[in-house]
Amino acid sequence: MPNLLLREAIPFFDYSPYREQFFKAVQQLGIPERSLVLPGTVSDADLPALYRCADAFIFPSVKEGWGLVVLEAIATHLPVVTSNIPPFTEFLTDTQALLVDPNAVEAIAQAMRDVVQPTIAQSLIQQSQTVLSHYTWITAAQMHIKFYCDIQPQ
After folding, report:
1. What is the pLDDT of residues 40-94, one digit of tens each?
2. Could you give phi then psi for residue 4, rounded to 5 degrees?
3. What are phi and psi of 59, to 5 degrees?
4. DSSP string, 95-145
5. pLDDT band at 17; cut points 50, 70, 90
6. Which of 99, 120, 136, 148 is most buried, judging by how many CB atoms fall within 10 Å of its CB?
7. Residue 65's CATH number
8. pLDDT in the model for residue 152
9. Structural domain tally of the chain?
10. How many other CB atoms sit within 10 Å of the CB of residue 25?
11. Region class of 102: left (phi > 0), else alpha (psi between -120 and 50), else beta
């Protein structure tokens, strides 16, 4: 069974009811817990090792302000499954990630099966690398400088 990294961002909301429901479903479905990695909050030092252990990155978020964790996964050459809603659709196409309805359990499950197929995984990895050049510290700094230079004093 492939190793799938399900990354949780630092929580701004209380997700404990969702977590309880998730683990109940895992148990009912007979999914071996050893095949899931749910590390909670992870230090920056430990992140690279976790990404290297995964075969795919699954992130069907419905409450994400920005997809930094998705960019991290792409930078570590993981194929990505994420939600077909903003912000993800603002920087990813369906050739760069498998975009799914985050409320459609079967669609997520199918994408998880698909993303570990070697041909699909390699295509997603290759296509997604172009996204990274748009989100560098230099690009961010240049955008901020341009914004500040464009501000007209009142």
Report:
1. 778 888 888 989 989 999 999 988 778 888 999 999 999 999 999 999 999 999 9
2. -115, 125
3. -145, 70
4. TTSEEE-TT-HHHHHHHHHHHTSHHHHHHHHHHHHHHHTTS-HHHHHHHHH
5. confident
6. 99
7. 3.40.50.2000
8. 73
9. 1
10. 11
11. alpha
